[in-house]
């Protein structure tokens, strides 16, 4: 899954996630939070008390909330970096069109 995530980030966002090499701490935290959040959301199917836990912010739902905050912060930082690159003209036109199409695809689904 890490290889797929690395590839999607490179093609879609023009960002080297480097989760396989382990060289970028924020990327590793994002990847771990993403994997954990994915597992916790899947686990909701067997946990009949997940809505109560979410309301009280306890147990697995508290962990999920922290993971989502890590994911949100990472993505927001990535968007700010990309906007800064585009503003300074360091982003290539091809990359710009590719990213626009990728974001449209994400928003569509």
Short description:
The chain has 109 residues and is an all-alpha fold.
In terms of topology, how is this protein built?
Layout: H1 2-13, H2 25-43, H3 50-56, H4 59-87, H5 93-108
Description:
The protein is an all-alpha fold and 109 residues long. It has one domain. It has 5 helices and no strands. Helix 2 packs across helix 4 and helix 3 crosses helix 4. The chain starts with a helix and ends with a helix.
Apparent shape: elongated
Reported for the largest beta sheet, the result is:
none
Number of alpha- plus pi-helical segments: 5
* Helix content estimate: over 70%
Radius of gyration: 16 Å
Average residue pLDDT: 81
N-to-C order of helices and strands: HHHHH
What separation lies between the terminal Cα atoms? Answer: 20 Å
The domain tally reads 1
Uncertain spans, ≥5 residues at pLDDT below 50? none
Q: Give me the count of strands.
A: 0
Q: Determine the structural class based on helices, strands and strand pairing.
A: mainly alpha
| Percent range for β-strand residues | under 5%
Multimeric organization:
single chain
């Amino acid at each position: 899954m890490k290889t797929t995530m690395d590839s999607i980030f490179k093609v879609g966002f023009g960002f080297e996630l480097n989760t396989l090499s382990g060289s970028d701490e924020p990327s590793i935290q994002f990847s771990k939070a993403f994997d954990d959040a994915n597992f916790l959301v899947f686990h909701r199917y067997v946990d009949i008390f997940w809505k109560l836990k979410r309301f009280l912010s306890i147990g697995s739902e508290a962990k999920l909330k922290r993971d989502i905050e890590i994911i949100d912060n990472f993505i927001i930082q990535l968007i700010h970096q990309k906007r800064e690159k585009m503003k300074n003209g360091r982003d290539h036109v091809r990359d710009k069109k590719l990213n626009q199409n990728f974001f449209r695809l994400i928003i569509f689904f």
